[in-house]
Design brief:
Number of domains: 1
Order of helices and strands: HHH
Radius of gyration: 15 Å
Helix content: over 70%
Number of helices: 3
Strand content: under 5%
Distance between the termini: 13 Å
Structural class: mainly alpha
């Protein structure tokens, strides 16, 4: 069961990372980054969420697999 949940979290994490990249490359984000020097909060939230999901999914998939 841990492997299934881990793979699902890996897929969700990858999607969130790609979505964060798309948001950070939008025109609105580029203009904000030009004036403030930092990415938008929305892109940062997607990056953080994706990284956390990927990390937890990786641990569940490869390290905490059920041993019988």
């Amino acid at each position: 069961m841990n492997k299934i949940i881990g793979v699902i979290l890996l897929v969700i994490g990858a999607y969130l990372l790609m979505r964060g990249h798309d948001i950070s490359q939008s025109v609105n984000s580029q203009v904000k980054n030009l004036f403030t020097g930092s990415p938008t909060e929305k892109a940062t939230h997607f990056y953080l969420g994706g990284a956390i999901c990927c990390a937890v999914g990786f641990v569940l998939t490869f390290f905490l697999s059920a041993k019988k």
